[in-house]
Amino acid sequence: MADPHQPLLTADEEFSDETYEPTAKVHVVGIAENDTVFDDSKTPPFSWKKLWLFTGPGFLMSIAFLDPGNLEGDLQAGAIAGYSLLWLLFWATAMGLLIQLLSARLGVVTGRHLAELCRDEYPNWARYLLWVMAEMALIGSDIQEVIGSAIALKILSHGFIPLWCGVLITASDCFLFLFLENYGVRKLEAVFAVLIGTMALSFAWMFGDTNPNGLELLEGIVVPKLSSKTIQQAVGVVGCIIMPHNVFLHSALVQSREIDHTKRGRVQEALNYYSIESTFALVISFIINLFVTAVFAKSFYGTPEAESIGLSNAGYYLQDKYGGGLFPILYIWAIGLLAAGQSSTLTGTYAGQFIMGGFLNLRLKKWMRALITRSCAIIPTIIVALLFDTSDDMLDVLNEWLNVLQSIQIPFAVIPLLYLVSKEEVMGAFRIGPVLKTLSWLVAALVIVINGYLMVEFFSGEATGLLFGSVICAFTAAYIAFVVYLIWRSIPFSSWFSSHTSKNVATVVN
């Protein structure tokens, strides 16, 4: 660990070779312990003050559960399936929590984030391929987030701000991010807390205005229901929860706190506090997603509008149904959507820096790294905005393609994560045990299968020509081969086989 008393680097010297500079980390060691000396092998007693100091990374992580893509999945699930998929939303959030806790565990124990560890663990060809996949997932997510913000700005300006202009305005959040980061981690986390609070207030207001049926809502959460007519929405609910870039992000965010990795008790303490705050953050995200699903279930389930509703027209449909009021529901929706889009694009900027810096081991100034990261996402987003601004239907088709793009990337974040948190050489005594390992792989397999179903359904309807069909088949074969390779690397017998082969070769040589 770097010397915490070293002088602060100047702007020209500050490179991205460390996730957080020692002087930028939140100090928690010794807080609320009354200077009592504890056995370093034991976990210090629980402290509310320490929990408050550890609170932050989980809420930044939870924003990926509340981005515009998730909101669109929520409203379509509510409009088409009513309250019947709320149970799936609950369990999908629980599965997402498990994956995110493993990501936090990796970051806390190793002091490095997932992209950095992948850089060291895999051969160059696999590392670069994993990086490309992570960047594609981030760009796909960012397009949805930026378009969501642009739609909200268009609504709030009565159409005065076109979609492409809203994209440019949203792109400027890169500079806001850099400005806020200079004031410290806690200030940045406070801004995200305000944005999450804005979403919660907006969607809770809509929930109160529409007054969904409480008993039907409770039944939807508790009683599992699934019909052939709602399979696509069910797949969408699960597919939107685990975001590949978010898995990379959380393992980096947890390093913003000062942790003494030489003391087992301190590491376990950090894991405990991060588990509590991440769980609380995702409970809040579940409630916000529930609000959105319930509002559209009450308003449009069983109506002709249900099949055509999307982000771009949802607010107008609500306004037509509920009219004015103390504050028009159209603008309440737009404010919540804007908060979701802005917060998720900011975290996307954050995740992009860690992904690019970690996989490529780049030593760039923070402002340059952020600018490159934003440009990779904003340039295609502007093109998309110009092409799709004239048609809501085209935007919905685009969203379907982007959902598939992100679904494709899920194995390339989750499989390396599960491999690394199970590896004793990486995690030491904190590697996950057999029960948690089995559960984690079952959850990962379920998510991958569900997203695989989404891809098959989507491409089977799109592959209409021989050339396109051949390209899809070739891509599918390469995709499956890489996934199999990652899984093979993760199975213990692969390392045993390599070791056994090496010993046999050595014996023959001797």
Short description:
The chain has 510 residues and is mainly α.
Key phrases:
globular, Amino acid/polyamine transporter I, 22 helices, 510 residues, 0% strand, mainly alpha, disordered C terminus
Structure, explained:
- With 510 residues, the protein is mainly α.
- It has one domain (38-411): Amino acid/polyamine transporter I (Up-down Bundle).
- It contains 22 helices and no strands.
- Helix 6 (124-156) crosses helix 7, helix 6 runs antiparallel to helix 15 and helix 15 crosses helix 16.
- The longest helix has 37 residues, at 264-300.
- The protein is globular, with a radius of gyration of 23 Å.
What's the number of domains? 1
> Percent helix among the residues?
over 70%
Mean pLDDT over all positions = 82
Question: How would a textbook summarize the main sheet?
Answer: none
Q: Distance N terminus to C terminus?
A: 42 Å
Number of helices: 22
- What overall form do the CA principal axes indicate? globular
CATH topology: Amino acid/polyamine transporter I
CATH class: Mainly Alpha
Number of β-strand runs: 0
CATH H-level superfamily? Amino acid/polyamine transporter I
Rg on CA atoms, Å: 23 Å
Structural class estimated from helices and strands: mainly alpha
- Strand fraction band? under 5%
SSE order, one letter for each helix or strand: HHHHHHHHHHHHHHHHHHHHHH
CATH architecture name: Up-down Bundle
